Amino acid sequence: MAGIGGAETTGKKWGWGLLNAVVVVYALVPVLWIVSLSFKSSKTLADGNFIPREWSLENYQNIFSTSEFTRALINSIGIAIIATAIAVVFGTMAAYAIARLDFPGKNLLVGVSLLIAMFPQVSLVSPLFEIERSLGLFDTWPGLILPYITFALPLAIYTLSAFFREIPWELEKAAKMDGATPGQAFRRVIAPLAAPGVFTTAILVFIFCWNDFLFAISLTSTEQSRTVPVALSFFTGSSQFEDPAGSIAAAAVVITIPIILFVLFFQRRIVAGLTSGAVKG
Amino acid sequence: MSQTTTEDTTTTGASPAPVAPRKKVLSEGKKAERRLGWLLCAPAALTMIAVTGWPILYSLLLSMQRFDLKFPDRTEWIWFDNYVTVLSSPYWWNAVWVTVLLTVVTVAVELVLGMSLALIMHRALVGRGIVRTTTLIPYGIVTVVAAFSWRFAWTPGTGYLAEALGGDPVLTEKIPSLMVVGLAEIWKTTPFMALLLMAGLALVPDDLLKAAAMDGASGWQRFIKITVPIMKPAILVALLFRTLDAFRIFDNLFVLTAGSQGTSSVSMLTYNNLIKGLNLGIGSTMSVLIFIMVAIIAFVFIKLFGTAAPGSDDGGKR
CB–CB of B191/B138 below 8 Å? Predict the structure, then answer.
């Protein structure tokens, strides 16, 4: 679309427009397909057409009428938000210390979090399965929140310490020289500068928790704490003669909405967060 | 001055009393900084150690026991018998080869595609915002959702791809299934690779490229002789992250094939033994073996990195 306007002026712009179109189609086709599937009526579900021949909301009505989906949605939202909040608070504290303070053991902490970032998660599943069963954490919210925090922390620490290193900390001193108390200097000067980094990290961590499947399927066994990705893989349709594809597609679209919103509104921040954490960190 | 402070830091715990007042102020500040540092890091460090440290040791212990939750009273200490069982199992070796094959092929394709995408995003004259926004969608979307989209696309009757290609059930044979899994994996993770590479591209000075162009270097020569060498650290970081991530492939396989027709990855096989088979001993043995393989991969990469390892500049800068 963007290329058409420039077509009259230069062929180069046309070329770029074409390339852009290829990329956009590549990225969007699988997403549009699942959206299309979710709006197909049960009669036309298996017609193999990319665009629905008959639009209907019945798949959405079906999933929102079962606790199998609504309960899973509540679990997903609750678990992801709590894990994100804790990981970001712990990560902010640690990243501040890493970026600003000098203390023995700092490199050890950085090393350990790097190790955890590379850790094969499946290796933790077997011991955690047994440990959580004996502690009564199996199939509970905390049973999922704990591993999520652990694997989100390296991401949070890297991204945040990269952001914190960019903050002009002399401003804090300057504010104090001008008579601000340490509390005021923090609230008026440092917090506004640090907030974008913290916010970006929160988005990345939330996406990570929202996406997890391995822990969620291994450490839960009932509706009580099953998250949506897991519930999806157990959908069987409301009767045994019904193809669950429609319900799965509708539920899939529902959990994709927050991701699309994040991407649309915070595109710049997500890119900055991903690249700063991974390359400079 | 600096000498006294270093002395103070080495003897803090032992004899804080006989220090002169002025030095004491300094060492107090130093000590307070350390204490604050430890205090701020404690919650993160303790959580990470509690959730990974003990479980790793525990899985070592579990891997040396016959421990099947279906027959809990037959639990016994059998040393390395589980390792012998796993390492002599054709299923295990098949899973290892499937995982290695998927990792090598997908990461190689992602590097090429990711580099092209990074160049498009970096150099685009028009529509840069649209491209960046849409490529973030595969990165952000829940893997299980994307996997279901691919599964339905290839389901005969239902799917547009299956219909377009004659309606053969591709997900019922080993090699076609693995190709579909690889495709799904590449679609989902190429944007992440591209973003990491784009950060590397931003480090290449434009003047240098222009100068080379003036001297008559072709686009390809400029790319190979200037861009790639400068980007090398970024390329290695991207490869390391993606290789380790690809090696743990699970979600896509679970939804697309569930490990049937010999398409299990090592993670999938471990899950099946552990959660479906409830065999903690064998499951833990596989966990330990996967851990060792990942450690070897990481070690090789870090050898290649040298000083470019992520996190290594933390010690120097503060």
Answer: yes
Q: Are B280 and B274 in contact (CB under 8 A)?
A: yes
Q: Of all residues in chain A, what percent are helix, strand and coil, respectively (each to 5)?
A: 75, 0, 25
Bridge partners of residue A168, in order along the sequence? none
Residue range B112-123, pLDDT digits in tens = 999 999 998 888
For the record, the structure tokens of A158 come out as: 């890297």
**pLDDT tens digits for B147-204?**
999 998 888 878 888 777 776 777 778 888 999 999 999 999 999 999 889 888 888 8
User: Is B138 within 8 Å of B187 (Cβ atoms)?
Assistant: yes
B164-183 as b/e: b if 16+ CB within 10 A: eeeeeebbeeeeebbebbbb
Closest partner CB to B247 (pick from A13, A120, A210): A120
Backbone angles phi, psi at B266, to 5 degrees: -65, -40
Calculate helix-pair angle for B143-154, A11-38, nearest 10 degrees.
90
Q: If you ran DSSP here, which 8-state letter would residue A54 be given?
A: S
> Which residues of chain B make contact with A243, given a CB cutoff of 8 A?
158
Question: What are the C-alpha distances in Å from B191 to residues A262, B128, B140, B296?
Answer: 16, 14, 10, 26
Q: Mean pLDDT, consecutive 10-residue segments, chain A of 281 residues?
A: 47 84 90 91 81 87 88 95 96 91 88 85 88 92 94 91 86 86 82 89 93 93 92 74 82 93 88 69 36
Q: Which residues of B touch A6 (CB under 8 A)?
A: 125-126
As a whole number of angstroms, the distance between CA B264 and CA B49 comes to 30
Distance (Å, rounded) from C-alpha A98 to C-alpha B295?
Answer: 25
The gap from C-alpha B256 to its chain's centroid, in whole angstroms, comes to 21
Please tell me the distance from the alpha carbon of residue B17 to that of residue B248, in angstroms, as a whole number.
55
DSSP letter at A156 equals H
The DSSP bridge partners found for residue A40 are A55
Q: Which of B6, B134, B151, B247 to mutate to test the interface with A (most CBs of A within 10 A)?
A: B134
B131, B159, B317 ranked by CB distance to A48: nearest? B159
Q: pTM (2 decimals)?
A: 0.86
- In three-state secondary structure terms, B106 is helix
